[in-house]
Amino acid sequence: MEKSDSEQRLQSRSIQPTAVRTMVLDYMIEQKAAVSLADLEDHFSRSDRTTLYRTLKTFLEHGLAHQIHDESGSAKYALCAENCTCSYPDDLHVHFYCSSCQNTFCFTELQIPSFNLPPKFQPDHGNFVITGRCANCAA
Ligand SMILES: [Zn+2]
Ligand SMILES: [Zn+2]
Ligand SMILES: [Zn+2]
Questions:
Q1: Which side of the chain, N or C, has fewer Cβ within a 10 Å radius?
Q2: How far does residue 2's CA lie from ligand 3's centre (Å)?
Q3: Ligand 2: distance of its center to the CA of 80 in Å?
Q4: How close is the Cα of 67 to the center of ligand 2, in Å?
């Protein structure tokens, strides 16, 4: 059988393409906004929560996806660009959380500047979220 794009994408990140992982990746590719674990649970009601959570964790660990903490209180996950290594600050971009529809969007073309932190502060990650109303809700 020929490999799907998703299977190849998983393998390029050294992730074994199981049925669930392929399914979740396909779903995330279709979404315009970042997804939460609850979104996955709603959509894949026949899969158990632990499996879905582990799938997201695997995606994070292998740099296939990144995590966003917005004001919704639950972590969101979005797919990374092909060449993303999730390194600070090069791969950081602006996120926008819409407080009206509660969607979070990646603005990958808006890179976060590298800040001059006070001496001895060692950054590992960054999480840059702007809150407001998205184009849809503001219209
Ligand atoms: Zn990344
Ligand atoms: Zn909105
Ligand atoms: Zn993002």
A1: N
A2: 30
A3: 22
A4: 19
